[in-house]
Amino acid sequence: WYWIIGGILFGVLIAFLTWYFKKRKPNTLAKPFQTNTSPYEEAMKELAGLEDYNLSLPSEIRIVHTKLAGILKRYLSRKQNNNYQNKTTGDVLIQLSDHYPDKDMLAKAASSLRCADAVKFAKYLPPAGESEECIRLTRAVINIIHQQTREGQAQPVNPK
């Protein structure tokens, strides 16, 4: 009797799983970077929004630097069709050096991203001037990348 009951339960389980997976709706996720604006316009708009924050308040400094790193990573993600959102600063800088040979741009990106990491993780509170400089550097990096891709100069240095 145990074998017969086990076989019936196994058959019921298979029938239930078949019914469940046929009735389940397919997973229709929206594309993560689908917007009507260009990556450059979106990044410039978000950077302009950072100027509304009071950089003398510690809570707002953390928000600005968190958003600053996110803006750069989102811009790169949309520009290169590669998700940079979960990458570390080191990974982002390696990808930038592979795609853009401009050492000055890479130094600016490194400075801005490392300052953002220090604020987020080491609880560093930079003076307002340093935070404004990070915003300016991020804007400069995005402008350089935008100009290089418009001119067709952004060739991968180390194609993989």
How would you describe this protein?
It is a single chain. By secondary structure, this protein is mostly helical. It is 69% helix and 0% strand. It has six helices and no strands. The N and C termini lie far apart (62 Å).
Q: How would you summarize the topology of this molecule?
A:
Elements: H1 2-23, H2 39-49, H3 58-80, H4 89-99, H5 103-121, H6 128-151
Helix pairs in contact: 2-3, 2-6, 3-5, 3-6, 4-5, 5-6
Defining traits:
mainly alpha; 6 helices; disordered C terminus; 160 residues
Q: Could you provide a short overview of the structure?
A:
The chain has 160 residues and is mostly helical. 69% of the residues lie in helices and 0% in strands. The chain starts with a helix and ends in a 9-residue tail after the last helix.
SS summary, helix count: 6
Q: Can you summarize the main beta sheet?
A: none
N-to-C SSE series?
HHHHHH
- Percent in helix: 55-70%
Distance between the termini: 62 Å
How many distinct beta strands?
0
